[in-house]
Amino acid sequence: MDLPRPPLPTYEDVAEAAHRLKGMAHHTPVLRSSTADALLGAELFFKCENLQRMGAFKFRGAFNALVQFSDAQRARGVLAFSSGNHAQAIALSARLLQMPAVIVMPEDAPAAKIAATRGYGAEVVTYDRFTEDREAISQRLASERGMTLIPPFDHAHVIAGQGTVAKELFEEVPHLDYLFVPLGGGGLLSGSLLAAQRLAPQCRVIGVEPEAGNDAQQSLRAGKIVRIGTPRTIADGAQSQALGSLTFPIIHAGVSDIVTATDAQLIEAMHFFAERMKIVVEPTGALGLAGARHGGVALRGRRVGVVISGGNVDMARYAQLLGTALAG
Ligand SMILES: *Cc1c(COP(=O)(O)O)cnc(C)c1O
Fold first, then answer.
1. Is the pLDDT of residue 214 over 80?
2. Domain 11-55+155-324 belongs to what architecture?
3. Would the CB of 238 count as within 6 Å of ligand 1?
4. Does ligand 1 come within 6 angstroms of the Cβ of 50?
5. Prediction pTM value
6. Exposure of 192 by Cβ count < 10 A (0-12 exposed, 13-18 middle, 19+ buried)?
7. Looking at the chain, which terminus has fewer C-beta neighbours within 10 angstroms, N or C?
């Protein structure tokens, strides 16, 4: 039996999210680079969510979801499972809204990430990735403590919040021909499509996922959700195994194409951002530029938006990755 699907979010939800986020999320800058323009023979506009609060766009979706909790939900708090940016986004949003937060993380998650999440005031519950099922643990905790579970992408309020990134870009930069968007579970891409439908219907929106984890590209071609094993890639924010029941239909209906980028291309893009634009971008955050540069889309003479989705990368790892780019 098919469960009734919750209604898909619309542009109006993105516009309402923008109101809720006013004064809470940063309106991030759009950077230009004449070197990038020359390299691609196009005009490039980089939307810098690496400069967002907590270092990634995920703050937008998390805050937009939590701020809509009822008083009863606020009193019990929020629960999330994530070892990445969603964890920190939920923890920070919960602190700002003064509600309890529990984040379920694998016990072998990087100590720095566990510390950062605790630093935002969340309680971290760890589990053994090899013997325990995080969804089962999360469901049990949620029902024991009456907390509300907020997933990282397949939630209407999360998608609407993420859509405010592209909304800001389209409002600031008219007449974009293309927009390249990093893609994991598809929250950011879905939200971008909702914004594009209303604000830039002529703009072709293209998702970029890691080559090793091209489940969304396969899903688009197959016309149904394709699930893969956890991909091996340095793009740790895009290691999702499948699109969601909300993100898939929005992407399937609206996306122009989905292209992929290799780890070497991500490192090349991170290196470009550091050397030429003086900005720190995490591997997943570099998907947009890598896809624009290597995805086979003819961009010469076009106006091209690129979302830089995040900048959270351990400095030792960052140095190591950039070192391989120099050696290579
Ligand atoms: C989560 C994340 C993504 C992927 O976003 P989805 O909404 O899951 O597609 C891309 N970049 C960064 C930096 C992220 O944290």
1. yes
2. 3-Layer(aba) Sandwich (3.40)
3. yes
4. no
5. 0.96
6. buried
7. N
